[in-house]
Amino acid sequence: MYLPPQFRSEDRSLALALMREHPFASLISTDDEGLPYVTHLPLHGVSDTQAEGEALCLLGHVAKPNPHWRYLQARPRALVTYLGPHAYMSPQVYPDEQRVPTWNYLAVHCTVEATLIEDAEAKDALLKRLIGDHEPAYAARWRGLDPDFQRKMLNGIVAFELRVTALQCKLKLNQHRPEAHAAMRAAYAAGNPDEQGLAAWMDRLGLHGPA
After folding, report:
1. Which of the residues 5, 71, 75, 192 has the least number of beta carbons within 10 Å of its own beta carbon?
2. Which residues form the signal peptide (predicted)?
3. Which of helix, strand or coil describes residue 108?
4. Could you say which DSSP state residue 4 is in?
């Protein structure tokens, strides 16, 4: 993605935080005609702190009728994108009038190598990780379901591991315009949930404007 230096973040912990807080990602591959094919889905991130460079893998699954898994099988290299809070920014936050509106946003792009997970126990473990992210209490209910029903559900999905080979993080919050930070943060803090999310990230990055 277009990544001007003032918006590029090299802090891996910020990228991982954004991915955890906004796990509904876009998985982008090429189909058999060479066109982009996109599936929107939740992904679970797993970091291996023992691996050199702290390897990161993303776990997910698609419905078996979705051809995306076949594209991953044929062409394992793909892209995963995450989008955090985003919102319009009025030029009224600037002390001078010769400014224009903009749109601020937070995004992470991951280049990945896909491996399909076909073993039933491994797929079951993957599902439990996803359930644990969003509704841990359901895990006990899933374990209590009829085994035949569980097998039917597992047979209806194709799971995969996406090994991250490159990561880009873009935090576009007008970092290069400190004269607008105080007014920008106040406007976002009083706004909708996306705007409030941007205000929280401004706090996280220490973008408060001149003292």
Report:
1. 5
2. none
3. strand
4. -
Q: How far is CA 121 from CA 57, 94, 96, 118, 140, in A?
A: 18, 57, 62, 9, 16
Is the Cβ–Cβ distance between 64 and 70 less than 8 Å? no
Nearest to 8 by CA among 166, 168, 177, 209: 168
The confidence band for 13, taking pLDDT boundaries of 50, 70 and 90, is very high
Is the model's pLDDT at 211 over the cut of 70?
no
Whether the Cβ atoms of residue 26 and residue 39 lie closer than 8 Å to each other:
yes
pLDDT by residue (tens digit) across 108-125?
Answer: 999 999 999 989 899 989
What six digits make up the tokens of 166? Answer: 């490159």
Q: Give Cβ neighbours of residue 206 (< 8 Å, ≥ 6 apart).
A: none
Residue whose C-alpha is closest to residue 43's, from 62, 70, 29, 71: 62
Helix (H) or strand (E) holding 87: strand 77-89
The reported pTM is 0.93
Q: Provide the b/e sequence for 23-38 (b: ≥16 CB within 10 Å).
A: bebebbbeeeeeeebe
Q: Which residue has the tokens 């491994």?
A: 122
